[in-house]
Amino acid sequence: MDKSIVRFILRYSTPQQIRLLLMTFCSFPLLYVSLELPKIIINDAIGDSTSIKQIFDITFTPMHYLLALCGLLLTMILINGMVKMYINTYKGIVGERLVRRLRYQLVERILRFQPRRFQMISQGELISTVTAETEPLAGFIGDSIALPAFQGGTMLTILLFMFMQDPILGIASIALIPLQIVIIPRLQRKINLLKKERVKTVRHFSQRIGESVDGMMEIRLHGTRPYHLAEFSKILGELFRIRLDIYKKKFFMKFLNNLINQLTPLMFYSIGGVLAIRGDLTIGALVAAVAAHKDLAAPWKELLDYYQQYQDSHIKYEQILEQFQSQELMPTVPASDTSPTQLDNHICLDKVAVGSELGNRLVRNINLELPAGGSMAIRCKDPSRLRALARTLIRINPPLSGHLLFGNDDLQTLPSDLLARELTYVGPDAFLFSGNMLQNINYSMRLKPPMEPPEALDSQRLWEIREAEASGNSTDRFDGIWTDFALAHAENWEDMRHWLYQGLKVVGADELIYNVGLNEKYNPVDRPQELSDGLLRVRRQLLQRVPAAGLDHLVERLDPQRYNCGLSVAENLGFGVPCPPISTPASMAAHPQMSALLEQFDLNRAALNCGRRMAERLSELALEAGPLDPLPDNFGEFDTPEFRRQVSELERRDPARSSEDARLLLELFLRIVPLRHGDDLLDDSLTAQLLATRQVVMARTDCPLCSSFDHFSEDRISAGLTVRENVLFGKVIGTDQAQLRQLQQLIDAAMQDEDAESMVMVLAGFTQVGIRGGSLPLIARQRIQLLRAIVKHPKVLVMHEALTAMSLEERATVLRRIRTRLPELTLIYLDQEIPPGDLFDSQYQIIADELQSLDIDTLPSLASSNL
After folding, report:
1. Does the CA dihedral 180-182-186-192 come out positive or negative?
2. Which of 66, 100, 187, 772 has the fewest beta carbons under 10 Å from its own?
3. Pairing relation of β-strands 709-711 and 576-578?
């Protein structure tokens, strides 16, 4: 990165700055004319109102001459204003482009930081630097050359005009400028030091907030909230002191500057007045000079502000450089004509020594050879040695000495793109990106920028590409398909589906993902028709197989003539799932036709009574759980602070009086699911009345409320039901675990027969994993991370403490499946324990700082020893 902000500006925007200068110079003659015209109007047109004027052989009467001059002045004002508007707009464009370039460079460096760099700088500091601290630079970058040229030229033009009127007035106008040049920079330097201190304090504040968020559990566990609040109070107090000092010095400087600026007009009035009285200066010239001085104050003020802005931006850029000017960047090796196009997975370590991030030697003199397609395990009780060796094998840290060869090529010289495709790593930190599981599994294959034929580019996309090029950013389309299907030996997603299904089985995640898919609520709108057709075929089989197996009592079918205790009252009422715009119990309860419908069947009083009983039950559960503990799982939909508050206030107002209370009770009534909330909330007579109401709701199409339901049908997959409920066409109500397992076996068999099992897994792939994968357990994150690594058929896989959530036997099973599914894969396994069995061609252990061969026959006895 450039050492100074001026060098950065000149390097990336010199042509644009020259264009701005040319436009600036073109504005000066226009400015001079606009200054000269008022004097001519006063002296010639108004002061000499009896003479006939002749210009370019055109004769003007005094009135016409005055109007012509005013029209010319108006034209000059418009042209001058348009030129200024263009210059300011273009300055903004230049500034924003360079800030975009700077941010892109900073983010690019973040992506190349060595892992140890993130131990020295917090996430909060990096975010604050890239976003907030670069924002003010846009204004200065656009003004860096054009503003001093424009304002300086404007000031010189005005001074030239004033000296042309009278040299004494010209001298008076600049007499106090040297005083400002001496005082203002000295005060500004003090303010700059305070601003530098403020930025450091804000960064520290951001870092401490981020650390507190990460350690929130420890803070609550140990009750150290007052301690941290005291720390934040101290930091905020320090920040307040700095900002207060800045305000004092800043406004004192403005006071001096304004005082000096006000002295100059006083000199005009005194000196110019004396000259006018003596007849040495015309009134028009004096008025023009006073007006010109007012115009002179603006560019001089802009120049002073520019100096302050330059100092401020200079400090900001230096501090940004301090954060990002790291020599410890991940190597990026471009491909050349002599670079290999495929990775040779015959690995040789020749006298390799590896060290820590600080350069301390951890393992020395490693001499190993691993043939292509071979496997090797290395164990060590010291995780730092394993981590150092793993990072050396994947070129994050270079070896301290020796050579790490892939075939005949040194690892340090291999192209980065080649390593990204064919060398992969799975570590102990199973990190998942925000999004769904399928996006995380597919993440390792996002290596092929989407193709964009020129004829397919619209005007918006062409503008995006042009601006990205102007800012030195990537021009690749982000929202296209980046997946390189060739890595998985596939052509499209349809081919990928079966490979993903096999991959899930390899890593042992098939059962987990499959169950997630079965419990996923189905939405036919954004799912392929093939999946709906497959599930319908499964449903037809199960409608016959479940009764034949004598398990029909475990499922309550969706029958339009029967009340289903697994559905809510709202779903039972319309025998379907409510759709927008009336899609929630709250919106249904507030709809005016709901009260009319219930009144028609004499259900209003019963509905409010049921809602009251539901509110009482929720209050009892909340009282038992306490304010901080969650409600039971079957009441989880009510477990929000807002809902708890509403129910609590409702209980205090007994009986409910307002229309808002009635709507809340009605909403509670519509939410009741007897199977989950208790079958005592609804009696038989009430369910019979609801069934009678259902017939009217299903028949009416003229009522917005009645027609808002997507009715259940045996001939199509229904939204709002899970996949399991859809294929059973009903709700599971049984509790006998043995019988439920039999039912699940019937579902699995039907899924396999109709080739729908893999489609359900793909559907499960749309489940959101949360931030950092936090919504999934560790074992699920580790399996997804492993699948992400092998889905692209790598040639070399380095596994470093990657399966810690599994038992040794489970690890052995997964490793055996990987070896079977990818026989040409070279596998290096690093962990504190080695799974049992003949999984590896060779095994080693690290004792002290040496690598020693581990005889397979002695493995059981060594497993319990302290290495």
Report:
1. positive
2. 772
3. antiparallel
Query: What is residue 421's three-state secondary structure?
Result: helix
Distance CA 623, CA 17 (A): 69
**CATH label of the domain that carries residue 827:** 3.40.50.300
**CA-derived radius of gyration, the chain:** 39
In this prediction, residue 349 carries a pLDDT of 92
Confidence band for 856, pLDDT divided at 50, 70 and 90 = very low
**Listed residue (863, 449, 531) closest to 726, CA to CA:** 531
* Euclidean distance between CA atoms 660 and 666, whole angstroms: 10
Residue 847 pairs with which residues in a beta bridge? 850
C-alpha–C-alpha distance, residues 419 and 755, integer Å: 36
SS (H, E, C) 443-461: HHHECCCCCCCHHHCCHHH
Cα(829)–Cα(815) distance, rounded to whole angstroms?
Answer: 10
Tracing tokens 């330059």 back to the chain, one arrives at 310
Contact 380, 386 (CB under 8 A): yes
| 192 lies in the same domain as 303 | yes
The alpha carbon of residue 437 and the mean position of all alpha carbons in its chain are separated, in whole angstroms, by 17
Are 697 and 594 part of one and the same domain? yes
**CA–CA distance, 152 with 160 (Å, rounded to integer):** 12
Co-location of 831 and 700 in the same domain: no
561-600 pLDDT, tens digit per residue, is 999 998 999 888 888 888 877 878 888 888 888 888 888 8
What pairing do the DSSP bridges indicate for beta strands 401-406 and 347-355? antiparallel
Can you list the positions of beta strands (E) in 371-474?
375-379, 401-406, 409-410, 423-426
Instruction: Say which residue, 147 or 831, is predicted with more confidence.
Output: 831
| Closest C-alpha among 732, 430, 726, 702 to residue 555 | 732
CA distance 333 to 721: 51
Closest CA to 790 of 444, 331, 380, 310: 444
Q: Three-state secondary structure along 323-341? A: HHCCCCECCCCCCCCCCCC
Same domain, 126 and 262: yes
Q: Are residues 558 and 679 in the same domain?
A: yes
| Domain-embedded: residue 436 | yes
Q: How far is CA 201 from each of CA 265, 311, 429, 648, 671, rounded to the nearest angstrom?
A: 43, 19, 31, 44, 51
Could you give the CA distance from residue 439 to residue 280 in angstroms, rounded to a whole number? Answer: 84
CATH of the domain at 59: 1.20.1560.10
Q: What is the mean pLDDT of residues 294-309?
A: 74
For residues 813 and 704, state if they share a domain.
no
Q: Which residues does 772 contact at the CB level (< 8 Å), separation at least 6?
A: 431, 432, 434
Total structural domains within the chain: 3
DSSP label of 428 = S
Residue 867: what pLDDT?
30
Rounded to 10°, the helix 641-652/604-625 angle is: 110
Is there a contact between 479 and 464 (Cβ–Cβ < 8 Å)? no
- What are the CA-CA distances from residue 343 to residues 395, 611, 818 (Å)? 14, 68, 19
472 vs 304, more confident = 472
Q: Which of 262, 243, 253, 132 is nearest to 198 (CA)?
A: 243
Q: Among 727, 744, 764, which residue terminates a domain?
A: 764
Backbone angles phi, psi at 124, to 5 degrees: -60, -40
Asked if residue 513 belongs to a domain, the reply is no
The residue among 262, 292, 324 that closes a domain is 324
Residue 545 phi/psi, 5° resolution? -70, -40
138 vs 297, residue with greater confidence = 138
Q: What is the pTM of this model?
A: 0.71
Range of the domain at 803: 347-448+771-863
Q: Name the pLDDT band for 865 (thresholds 50, 70, 90).
A: very low
The SS3 call for residue 576 is strand
Residues 102/134, Cβ–Cβ less than 8 Å: yes
Q: What SS3 state is found at 828? A: strand
